[in-house]
Design a protein that fits this description.
Number of domains: 2
CATH class of the largest domain: Alpha Beta
Shape: globular
Number of strands: 14
Low-confidence stretches: none
Structural class: alpha/beta
Radius of gyration: 22 Å
CATH architecture of the largest domain: 4-Layer Sandwich
Strand order of the largest sheet: 3-1-14-4-5-6-7
Helix content: 25-40%
């Protein structure tokens, strides 16, 4: 082992021990596994770095320091993110993508093009820092599309400023969905505030928040969410929310912050609101992992469809769509997958790792019976270090009804 790898390994071991003592065994395991895998791949490729070795050392150190900073989680400033967090995420993403090349190198063979995964990671960094602004046209005609869950073609996307008019004979409801902002390295307060301010400027009839507002960094900064989403206070009575899986880590904080901006948090409950197309019923489903079919059935059992022009369901995790009662909704709005996170969407193709390898509704419009599911590509992300080939989304949804 080179001195560089030895020092990096010692730092990771020390950080893992400190993390277990200062935070939890689960966090220590998370840090140890991620940094350990990162270092193994780095060690296999190290002989290829040559003149780039000092840069690799810096990036490896940045990755370790990024996780060390999570011992005291809080949002960081622009300089910190530019010099440490963002380079660390590019490096970690590149090393994970380089896993096949690392295996070839470890076998004593020449890993031709070993630099390509790192170049891809760097090129995709902008996808994690900004979003496409689009109008998403969704036609809700109530037709039955059968079972099981399948991708629907009744969706079109247009540049926001070049969207066509509403078709003659149709009525439309305009909605902004904000999901998975994940306040943290890639979503500063300023960036999320800009997203919310642009949403207000579109003057939608509803703003629907479908969960995962924080990361461990964001939740360590007092009142960060309410400051970031403060512009939504200009739309009283129009903002509704459900919780995502990360929100259950700090449920009281999320509830207080949403209340402060005037958002109505729906936890397995429904509320009706008047719109230009009539009364719309909004049902917020809480995030759970097990027993979803029974829980969902209990939520919808007392609800009547009478008197509502449209029923919208807020459901953070789109895998729950298959567990919902048959035809219980006109449209379900989800996030969670970050659009598939790693895929070919940027090339105009629908394939992503989450959809293609796991069979999960990853992005776009899906159907089951008469119900439709829209999976937003998310405003932010968390988990895998970067978005690769799946840009973030900042869109205006236009729901068109043929009735």
């Amino acid at each position: 082992m080179s001195p560089f790898i030895t020092i990096a390994l010692a730092a990771i071991i020390a950080l893992t021990i400190i993390a277990a003592l200062a935070r939890s065994a689960a966090f220590a395991g998370f840090v140890g596994v991620l940094l350990g895998m990162n270092l193994l791949i780095t060690a296999a490729l190290e002989p290829r770095f040559v003149a780039l070795a000092p840069l690799a050392w810096y990036l490896q150190a940045a990755s370790t320091l990024h996780f060390a900073a999570l011992l005291r989680p809080r949002l960081r400033g622009t300089l910190y993110r530019t010099l440490l967090s963002l380079p660390a995420h590019v490096w970690m993403a590149g090393t994970f993508l380089a896993f096949p090349w690392a295996i070839v190198s470890a076998m004593g063979l020449e890993p031709h093009g070993w630099w390509l995964p790192f170049l891809i990671a760097l090129a995709c960094l902008p996808q994690s820092l900004r979003a496409r602004r689009e109008l998403v046209q969704i036609r809700l005609d109530g037709s039955a599309q059968g079972d099981p869950v399948q991708r629907s073609a009744a969706l079109k996307r247009y540049p926001l400023l070049a969207a066509p008019a509403v078709p003659q004979g149709a009525t439309a409801l305009h909605i902004v969905q904000i999901t998975d902002p994940h306040l943290g390295p890639f979503m500063s307060e300023a960036r999320l505030r800009g997203i919310c301010q642009r949403a207000v400027e579109l003057d939608p009839e509803l703003v629907l928040l479908t969960g995962d507002f924080y990361t461990m960094e964001g939740s360590g900064t007092q009142q960060s969410l309410r400051r970031a989403m403060e512009p939504l206070k200009e739309l009283p009575g129009r903002v509704f929310a459900c919780r995502g899986n990360h929100d259950l880590e700090v449920p009281e904080l999320v509830a207080a912050e949403l209340q402060a901006i005037g958002a109505r948090l729906l936890i397995d409950e429904a509320e009706r609101v008047s719109t230009s197309i009539g009364v719309v019923e909004i049902v917020g489903i809480d995030h759970i992992w097990r027993g979803r079919r029974e829980r969902f059935a209990a939520v919808f059992a007392p609800l009547s469809r009478g008197g509502a022009a449209l029923r919208l369901v807020l459901l953070h995790d789109p895998t729950g769509f298959a567990k919902l009662p048959t035809d219980c909704a006109d449209l379900v709005l989800s996030g969670h997958t970050h659009g598939g996170h790693l895929g070919l969407v940027s090339l105009g193709l629908s394939w992503t790792s989450i959809g293609g390898l796991m069979g999960i509704p990853d992005h776009g419009l899906w159907s089951k019976g008469t119900a439709r599911l829209y999976v937003h590509r998310a405003n932010g992300h968390y988990g895998f270090p970067l978005r690769i080939g799946v840009p973030a989304e900042e869109s205006l949804l236009r729901l068109e009804l043929d009735r």
